[in-house]
Amino acid sequence: ITQSRALWGALRRRSIWAPAIFTFFWSASPTADTAMFFFMTEQLHFSPQFLGRIQLVQGLAELLGVYVYNKFLKAVPLRKVLGWTLVAGTVSGATQLILVTGANRAFGLSDKLFALGDSVIIQALHRIALMPLLVLAARICPEGVEATLFATLMSIGNASAGASATLGSALTALLGVTSTNFGPLPLLVTLCTLTRLLVLPMLVMLPTSLDGESAPPAAEAKDDTDEANTLL
Question: pTM for the whole thing?
C-alpha cells in the first residue's frame, strides 16, 4: 500500500505524467506490419527462410542503432533526438511504398534485395528512436519509487504497442486489405506512416530539464518522494 501511494504521488506530477502520455502516443500510431507480412508471403512469395534472414538483418540493424545512439547522439538533447528520429522514421517508413508499388524494379533492385536494405534502415532508426525513450523513462523516475515507476512506464509502452496493432488491424479492415486484395495497401501504408507525425507537437510536453546528462536534480526527486509521503 505504501509503495502504491508513493507511486500515485509521483504520477500526479506533470513532469512525470506528461512524458508518460507522450510515450504512449509515440508508439500507439497504427501499423501496417500484418498487411505487409501477407503481402510479402502471398504477393511477393517470400519463403520462410528468407523471412528469417530479414529477421536476422533487423536484429543486426538494432545493434547498429544502439551503437549510433551511444556514439553520436547520447549527449544531444532528448527533444531534438526524438524530433529528428520521428521525421527520419516517417520518411524511411514511406519507402515501403516503393516495395508495395514495385517501383524498386524500375531501378534494377529485386524485391528481396530492396526488402533487406529497407529493413536495415527502418529497424536501425526504430532502435535509435527507442533509446531516448528508455533514457526518458529512466530520468523522470524520482527517488524511492524508481523500479516501480520504471516498470509502470514500460507497461504503458507495451499497452501502446497493443493499441498500435489494434488500430492497424482496424484500419486494414476498413480499407478492405486482405490476403487476396492488396489494392488499397499503398493507401494503408501512407496513412500509417503519416499518423506518426501526429505526435510531433506533443514534444513540448517534455520538460526541458530532461535534456541534461543525468537524472532529474536531487532536490526535485526529493520533492517527488516527500509529496508522495504526505499521502501516507
Answer: 0.82
